[in-house]
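My main concern about presentation is that the manuscript never shows what a single data entry looks like. In essence, backbone conformation is discretised, so a fold becomes a row of integers matching the chain in length. An entry of this sort, consisting of the sequence and the corresponding backbone structure tokens, reads as follows:
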Amino acid sequence: YLVAFTDRAEYFASNRTIERNKPLNWVRASAIGVKKGCKPVLLDGSIYFVSRDGGRLYAADYDAVSEAFKPVPVNDLNNDIVANIRRMVVQRKSGNMSTDRLLLLREDGRLIACATNVSQDISLAACEWPITDGGIVHGVSVDGLDRVWLTVERNGVYTREMLTEADENLLQLGIFGSTDLAGQISGLSHFNG
């Protein structure tokens, strides 16, 4: 099915097939609305999206009985940390991960890691992913190799960091840089101590 999201509602095309020169039959799934700039993601067969105010996370599945998409809130048990969501990305399962991971970037710069387990009826388990030295996350993305990249600010200094599992990396943080003409490199103050 073709699904469309706006800031006022969610729609799906109920047509069984999409044919040229035939109009689509758009049906409103709900009037929740999606937060501007926070793209919906696909995780474990469900479409996850954030309400227009950024306070609720929903999962929408197609219900064959009612022939409709039905969004349901999934952050009822952890709405204290799964709130004020600015951006979402999905990291596909790799290495020792047990499942795909949903990463939520909050408006306050905190990073939340979420997982689901549909076979155990766990719609969402969430915890904060701590950033070294009280860093504030300004951006999160996943590259083609399913590596998570963060843009982190510490004391006014911005760095681009790759998030790694603790058992895969002995280092808390790595920096790539070039020296100046005197052979010195700057921007390393967060390594002090």
